Amino acid sequence: MSLVNLAHVCSHLNNATKARLGFTSIPNSNLHLKLCLALQNDGFISSVVRGGPQPPPMHPLLGIPVAKDETHDIEPLTQSNVASRRLWLGLKYWQSQPVLSKISMVSKPTRRIHIDVTALREIVRGEKAKFVEGLRSPGESLYLSTDLGILEARECVEKKVGGLVLCRVL
Question: Where is the signal peptide (predicted)?
Fold first, then answer.
């Protein structure tokens, strides 16, 4: 797991929302895909599509990217094009404000922060525990890498699992 690449993705998403982009791409990796799917499930981004260096075609009625279309076939994954694969993300806005207003790394490549369930309960309640500030804003989320995949902090408390703290989303 490369936290350096994840830090680049976080800064890219911050810059894309500040620039009011509707559609952006990040490098394809399993960690990035799982985090983006978790962000999509929580409603921070609208769509996640795997594709190549060119953006996937947009659905004519819905205006969201689609993985396959009758007129556009996506190039199959091979050894020669694996490095150029991208994840194309649709960003969401509500009343001209970005839904994903800020995403920041908690664990750094030089300092990885692992949290158990008891400390995670304190964080969900809004208290500071193990160098991690509590969740105080209503829309704030904290994402952890666990044995069950990438989960939000409240899900980790429900499932009673701890893990590596990845990022905080406002």
Answer: none
Residues with Cβ within 8 Å of 36's Cβ and at least 6 positions away in sequence, in order, are: 26, 45, 48, 87, 89
- Domain check: are 68 and 149 in the same one? no
Owning domain of residue 56: 3-97
Work out the average pLDDT over 138-160.
96
75 with 129, same domain: the answer is no
Of 63-77, 124-138, 155-169, give the lowest mean pLDDT range: 63-77
Categorise residue 96: left if φ over 0, alpha if ψ from -120 to 50, beta otherwise. left
Rg (CA), the chain: 17
Identify the CATH number of the domain in which residue 161 sits: 3.30.1490.10
pLDDT of 75 reads 65
Domain end: 73, 97, 121, which one? Answer: 97
137 and 90 both lie in a single domain? no
The three-state DSSP-derived secondary structure of 19-79 is CCCCEEEEECCHHHHHHHHHHHHCCCEEEEEEECCCCCCECCCCCCECCCCCCCCCCCCCC
Mean pLDDT taken over the chain:
90
Question: Domain check: are 77 and 130 in the same one?
Answer: no
Residues 114 and 90 in one domain: no
pLDDT at 59: 75
